[in-house]
Amino acid sequence: DIKNAINYINKAPNLAIGYMDLGNAYFQSEMYKKAFDAYKKGFDLAANKNEKYDFVYNMSLVCLKLGDKDKALEYAEYAQSLKATDEIRKYIHDIKNPWGLSDSRY
Questions:
Q1: What is the pLDDT of residue 73?
Q2: What one-character-per-residue DSSP string does 23-90 give?
Q3: Between 20 and 30 A from 14 (CA), which of 41, 46, 88, 98?
Q4: pTM greater than the 0.85 cutoff
């Protein structure tokens, strides 16, 4: 929950994982702007491409929830540049084609 994540961050402010927990707690509470801020802070602290991928992917999800499809796509494509996975290719495809009206290939 939010309180536990904040406590973790207070004990280890330079570890990215605390900000992932905080962002997830805010996201689940539909506090999307706060979730984005937490993910951004975690991204800045992330130690490697895999961690950065997780944060930027979640930042994309937040943008989509906030109705900013262009920003969501921008972050998703950045995530893909960090780690190309089937999951991110499908997600990008779904952002670009929300009604499934295009070719089913990613």
A1: 97
A2: HHHHHHTT-HHHHHHHHHHHHHH--SHHHHHHHHHHHHHHHHHTT-HHHHHHHHHHHHHH---HHHHH
A3: 88
A4: yes
State whether residue 36 is helix, strand or coil.
Answer: helix
Q: What is the mean pLDDT of residues 53-74?
A: 97
Dist CA 19 CA 5 (whole Å): 7
In whole angstroms, how large is the CA radius of gyration of the chain?
14
Longest Cα–Cα distance in the chain: 49
For residue 93, the tally of other CB atoms under 10 A from its CB is 17
Residue that is written with structure tokens 């997600």 in the block = 91
- What tokens appear for 48 in the block? 């490697």
d(CA 22, CA 73): 23
